[in-house]
Design brief:
The complex is a heterodimer. Chain A is an alpha/beta fold. Helix content of chain A is 25%, strand content 19%. In chain B, 51% of the residues are buried. The chains are: A alpha/beta, B mainly alpha.
Chain lengths: 436, 313
């Protein structure tokens, strides 16, 4: 199709048909809501409420600590029952605020403010911080930090990442089809911070309905254009997307702003719009609840803090015995051994698989498939060997620190070797030691 | 441990290709040439193929069973080795030679180095090479029916003028599976279309081979002569199926080009010296350079180059 794209990548079955036509449905939680104080990258939020106090929907219950942090808001009205460590998606125990839902959904008054067009950039950034907006695609980097670049004039592109390259996932797609004008408005607000930037909504060429809807919505927005890219995993990875849009390659140590780009997720941009036009913080997000184990997979608008354990029931219950639960997409998602963990700002989906792909790894046959698909042009099999042997020096020399962790190498490996997790394990270990 | 039940690590889906699938596809791709060989050379060709395949698999099984290695014989890679070895044998050779070559290929060249993925030399070629050195007269005696002992290429190298058409179709003497260029290329196209092999090595090899012959052959761009050189001596089988061997060829993209060119040049040089099985030695020599080539052609990682400025379209 002549779209510029990166070399490598894989083409897993998309499996989006389960939910692509399912409109976003609001889901009301049944059990208690659990709000981890750390739903983002950075400092843990600090509770500003006490056990026994009644909180309202949209009320801030924990404030940001420090510059790189984000506040947490209640998504229902109810009584704070506990502030204690609970298990979260990552498997770790993190301090959480537990709220008992009183079922009234009494709203906290919307934040009063000037129309966004009259606000100063600093005010807008503060507003985004106070609304608790973080990168909702999975990374969870606080959006106000991302937007506070040193020199806003150097930003040439604000890219909305609507590629959704993970198989099964359709929540971003539904947002784009159902609320294209909301996305355009949100992007317009972000663009007002960067006077020399154009807004680009990036999609994959399998989402034609969304492309049409968005093109109509941005018809009268001279600064926004819709661009379509090849359907390929990991098209939605930040570094790959920047390359596809601008032709510039950034390495793992560089920020998108060095290539003159800001990359935001669809859900994040919708949250920005909500913060400015409705005066409401992030309390809900769209989630794809899907998988062959479910009777009727759905796209749900879920209140943050809802337990994942409630979601299969909301999607019609199980049709088959579920073998494995994954939070997020099947390529990069996290396996959940225990479903009783809360939905947080970065949870894009729940995948209930009726089959667990467990393969015994066999000997590497040096077919080179991993190298062929690696978007970063690494030699995954060599790096995995080095990581297993703990050879730090050589690992670094072969650019092991550049690994995206997209999992393409593991996906294609005919010997079923766990290449990407091994490389990422080594990479994380070295990063934790503060070595780059 | 409850947690052991789950595949913990991402990705949670896997591609459909497995080692066994790949090897089965390769066997399928070699089928046209095998069928042609049996039809053209008769039942003895079938026995050659069967004996080589069975011996190879049996050797690997015995080796794995007695050294307590995980049983990997079911991935059929030994069958590929056996089939390729049989393809290079002249039909008139005694059957026990196939057994000797197979045992050497699997036990010494493949398993002793650590099994699949660890061998430094191509097993099938090494087995053939051993037989060629030990029994050079028998292994070079390609006589069948009314055809003499030397192949069309052999006659060309002795200075005769030959018509290369039988070498393309296959109705000439030669190794059991080597004679029909069409059948081999058909198999290669199958593998290409499934993405199992890639064009880099064969194209680079063929191009370098033809270019070297054209420049140094003293015949200029003599198409009949070049076609005979290309289709004879197992060059096509070698460059598509044995130079492409995953284990013994470099994994890097540019390394594969270097490797292909190296094979092409070596093969052409040996052909010009009158060696008919030039491709065999060329590939084995190039096998030895693989680790070096790989070391020298580590690709530059994404973002490590200076940022390339591309003007806005």
């Amino acid at each position: 199709m002549g779209h510029m794209t990166f070399r490598g990548g894989v083409f897993p079955h998309r499996r989006k048909r389960f939910t692509r036509d399912g409109e976003l449905e609001e889901y009301l939680p049944k059990g208690d809501l659990v709000y981890p104080l750390l739903q983002h990258i950075g400092g843990m939020a600090v509770p500003v409420t006490e056990v026994g106090e009644r909180v309202l929907e949209g009320q801030m219950i924990a404030k940001a600590s420090g510059d790189i942090s984000a506040p947490v808001h209640a998504s229902v009205s109810g009584i704070v029952r506990a502030i204690e460590p609970r298990k979260t998606v990552s498997g770790k125990q993190i301090p959480c605020i537990v709220v008992e839902n009183d079922g009234e959904y009494e709203q906290y008054p919307a934040t009063e403010m000037k129309p966004w067009k009259e606000q100063e950039p600093g005010e807008k950034i503060r507003r985004i911080r106070d609304a608790g907006i973080v990168g909702m695609g999975g990374a969870g980097f606080p959006t106000h930090v991302k937007l506070s670049v040193r020199n806003p004039k150097k930003i040439r592109y604000v890219i909305v990442n609507g590629t959704e390259c993970e198989p099964y996932m359709t929540s971003d797609y539904r947002r784009m089809v159902e609320e294209p004008e909301h996305l355009a408005e949100g992007l317009e607000i972000v663009l007002s911070l960067f006077e020399r930037a154009v807004g680009i909504i990036a999609l994959e060429d399998n989402k034609r309905d969304a492309v049409t809807a968005l093109q109509l919505a941005v018809l009268h927005e001279p600064r926004i254009e819709v661009r379509v890219f090849e359907t390929k995993y990991p098209q939605g990875s930040e570094r790959m997307l920047i390359y596809s849009v601008t032709g510039k390659e950034i390495d793992s140590t560089q920020l998108p702003e060095e290539a003159g780009c800001i990359v935001l997720n669809v859900e994040t941009v919708c949250a920005v719009r909500q913060a400015f036009l409705e005066g409401r913080p992030v309390t809900r997000r769209a989630i794809t609840v899907t998988g062959k184990a479910l009777k009727s997979p759905k796209n749900l608008l879920v209140r943050l803090g809802t337990s994942f354990a409630e979601l299969p029931e909301a999607a019609g219950g199980f049709a088959r015995e579920p073998k494995k639960f994954v939070c997020g997409g099947p390529m990069r998602g996290v396996a959940l051994p225990d479903l009783d963990v809360p939905v947080i700002k970065t949870s894009a989906g729940l995948l209930c698989m009726s089959r667990d792909y467990l393969f015994k790894p066999t000997a590497c046959i040096r077919c080179g498939a991993c190298m062929e698909v690696c978007p970063i042009r690494l030699l995954p099999v060599r790096l995995a060997e080095l990581a297993a042997a703990d050879k730090e020096e050589e690992f670094r020399r072969l650019h092991g620190m550049e690994c995206l962790g997209c999992g393409s190498c593991s996906y294609v490996c005919p010997a079923r070797r766990a290449l990407a997790p091994t490389i990422q394990g080594m990479r994380k270990k070295l990063l934790a030691q503060g070595k780059r | 441990m409850e947690e052991k039940k789950y595949g913990w690590t991402f990705p949670h889906v896997k591609g459909t290709m497995s080692t066994a699938n790949i090897m089965r596809m390769v066997l399928l791709a070699l089928l046209p040439a095998a069928v042609f060989g049996v039809v053209f050379f008769g039942l003895k060709a079938f026995w050659h193929i069967l004996i080589c395949v069975v011996t190879c698999m049996l050797t690997e099984f015995v080796f794995e069973a007695f050294t307590d290695r995980p049983l990997a014989v079911t991935d059929c890679s030994a069958a590929v080795t056996g089939l390729l070895l049989a393809f290079m044998m002249p039909v008139g050779a005694p059957l026990w030679m196939g057994i000797l070559g197979s045992v050497f290929a699997i036990a010494v060249i493949k398993m002793a180095f650590g099994g699949i993925g660890k061998n430094r030399l191509n097993p099938a070629l090494s087995g053939y090479c051993l037989l060629l050195l030990l029994f050079s007269d028998t292994m070079r005696d390609y006589s069948i029916r009314d055809m003499g002992s030397s192949t069309l290429l052999g006659r060309l190298l002795q200075g005769e003028t030959v018509d290369p058409l039988p070498m393309i179709l296959g109705n000439t003497n030669g190794g059991i599976g080597q004679t029909s260029t069409i059948a081999i290329v058909a198999g290669a196209i199958l593998l290409l279309s499934f993405g199992i092999i890639r064009l880099r090595i064969p194209l680079a090899g063929t191009f370098a081979f033809l270019l070297t012959l054209t420049v140094f052959g003293g015949r200029g761009f003599d198409q009949l002569w070049l076609t005979t050189q290309l289709c004879g001596g197992g060059f096509v089988l070698g460059i598509w199926f044995m130079a492409e061997d995953y284990t013994t060829s470099p994994v890097t993209r540019s390394g594969q080009l270097v490797y292909g060119v190296l094979i092409g040049i070596l093969a052409a040089a040996m052909r010009l010296k009158g060696i008919e099985e030039a491709i065999v030695y060329a590939i084995l020599l190039a096998n030895l350079t693989t680790p070096l080539i790989e070391k020298m052609t580590v690709p530059m990682a994404f973002g490590q180059r200076k940022m390339i400025k591309i003007s806005k379209d």
